[in-house]
From TrEMBL:
It is found in: Cytoplasm. It comes from the Bacteria. The lineage of its organism: Bacteria, Pseudomonadati, Pseudomonadota, Alphaproteobacteria, Rhodobacterales. Catalyzes the methylthiolation of an aspartic acid residue of ribosomal protein uS12. This is Ribosomal protein uS12 methylthiotransferase RimO. It comes from Sulfitobacter alexandrii. The gene is rimO. [4Fe-4S] cluster 2 binds at residues 168, 172, 175. The keyword S-adenosyl-L-methionine applies.
Length: 458
């Protein structure tokens, strides 16, 4: 049982959960997956391919013949975390293959860790497999292995991330993700639906739709229609909503066509939840960021969304201390947050990242000022969250059960994404519940980020 908020860095995914799947004599690979949910999906795909070739998946360093470290390069602090993870894997195992976003800088990695066996960039699945084959030759048992592999999942069985595209066409000055992962590459809609159908057939109750820019899905392939499915986010959301699972949309830029998603939420086809990276509210800061949004129009959009779907939950992340941010610009952000009344908010202090254009902007904000603004921002966001949750006391709502221990069942409402949002705890009469169940509860108590409730008898 844990309470929120967790680390509010927006580039984090749930910790990968590995099980011991080995057989005697089977070559085994370990995986350390860092960074965002998109990287977690990459890790799942790599392990699925390896499983299909007869490799086992080791949950610890000692049982692995080699370790893959899937790195993050979103911020300098994330790069440092990746280098630390590589060093730990080298110390504990010694045979390490590096992939992921930081893998786009092989010289930088080898400068710190020259003993690594190989390094590849993000979503370079074939190169990772080649590196594994060279380090640990496959030794499949034809009577057990080499069968069509079930997808390896690094999340609990009842929810799964569903990546619909790779890359991004934006040129935000603080971000180097497009440089590492390339321009937008949308998956065909029929392929996304087929994957989603298989996940639901295997027991997944919640699909978390992710990409770098979910709103732009299909733009690069001109919203092509194939096998009855059109590559447009509205059509895709409607098709996914027909599968009977919860559908949660992440990383949705507030383009005008996003308003077409709101009726689907009001109808119950997809969850009334939007994760929108606003990043700031002052127009001059947004211009310096090269962000594709206008703060004034955004408030109008939010009001329109809530008018159509009063239960909608809005989550966002923000940057404080961006180069040139004045006290007046920061106060505009606080005032905007007062008016927007977002339900779930994450915030991080601006950091330089090697290769980002924002590094060259003038008037960088001192560290102590960034910390002060972060503290003030989070104090306001916490007060808004506390008031919104208090208003839910006495309401009945459906929750999905993520974990059960001796103290409570840890659940999430439709307003809560795994790991980054709040929880609802059932700490009485929960012995008959099962992880993955969706049950109706009555909310009895609220805190700053979490709720407590009891199960409503069927």
């Amino acid at each position: 049982m844990s309470t929120n908020p967790p680390d509010l860095r927006p580039d984090l995914a749930p910790r990968a959960r590995l099980g011991d799947t080995g057989r005697p004599g089977q070559p085994s690979i370990g995986m350390v997956s860092l960074g965002c949910p998109k990287a977690l999906v990459d890790s799942e795909r790599i392990l699925t391919r390896l499983r299909a070739e007869g490799y086992g998946v080791s949950p610890d360093y000692a049982g692995a013949d080699a370790v893959i470290v899937n790195t993050c390069g979103f911020l300098d602090s994330a790069k440092a975390e990746s280098l630390e993870a590589i060093g730990e894997a080298l110390a504990e195992n010694g045979r390490v293959i590096v992939t992921g976003c930081l893998g786009a800088e092989p010289d930088y990695i080898r400068e710190h860790h020259p003993r690594i066996l190989a390094v590849t960039g993000p979503h370079q699945y074939e190169q990772v497999l080649d590196a594994v084959h060279a380090a640990v030759p496959p030794a499949p048992d034809p009577f057990i292995d080499l069968l069509p592999a079930q997808q390896v999942s690094l999340t609990p069985r009842h929810y799964s991330y569903l990546k619909i595209s790779e890359g991004c066409n934006h040129k935000c000055k603080f971000c180097i993700i497009p440089d590492m992962r390339g321009r937008l590459q949308s998956r065909p809609a029929h392929a996304v639906i087929r994957e989603a159908e298989k996940l639901v057939e295997n027991g997944v109750k919640e699909l978390l739709v992710i990409s770098q820019d979910t709103s732009a899905y299909g733009v690069d392939i001109r919203h092509a229609e194939d096998r009855g499915h059109r590559a447009h986010i509205t059509d895709l959301a409607r098709d996914l909503g027909s599968l009977g699972a919860w559908v949660r949309l992440h990383y949705v830029y507030p383009y005008p066509h996003v308003r077409n998603l709101i009726p689907l939420m009001a109808e119950g086809l997809v969850l009334p939840y939007l994760d929108i990276p606003f990043q700031h509210a002052h127009p001059d800061v947004l211009k310096r960021m090269a962000r594709p949004a206008a703060a004034a129009k955004t408030l109008d959009e939010i009001a329109a969304w809530r008018a159509q779907c009063p239960d909608i939950t809005l989550r966002s992340t923000f940057i404080v201390g961006y180069p040139g941010e004045t006290e007046a610009e920061f106060q505009t952000l606080l005032d905007w947050l007062d008016e927007a009344q977002l339900d779930r908010v994450g915030c991080f202090q601006y950091e330089n990242v090697a290769g980002a254009r924002s590094n060259d902007l003038p008037d960088h904000v001192p560290a102590e000022v960034k910390q002060d603004r972060w503290d003030r921002f989070m104090e306001k966001a916490q007060a808004i969250s506390e008031a919104k949750l208090a208003a839910k006391v006495g309401r009945r709502m459906d929750v999905i059960i993520d974990e059960i221990d001796e103290d409570a069942a840890t659940c999430r409402t439709k307003a809560d994404a795994p790991e980054i949002d709040g929880n609802l705890f059932i700490d009485e009469d929960f012995s008959d519940l099962t992880v993955g169940d969706i049950v109706t509860v009555e909310v009895e108590e609220a805190g700053e980020y979490d709720l407590w409730g009891r199960v409503v008898p069927a």
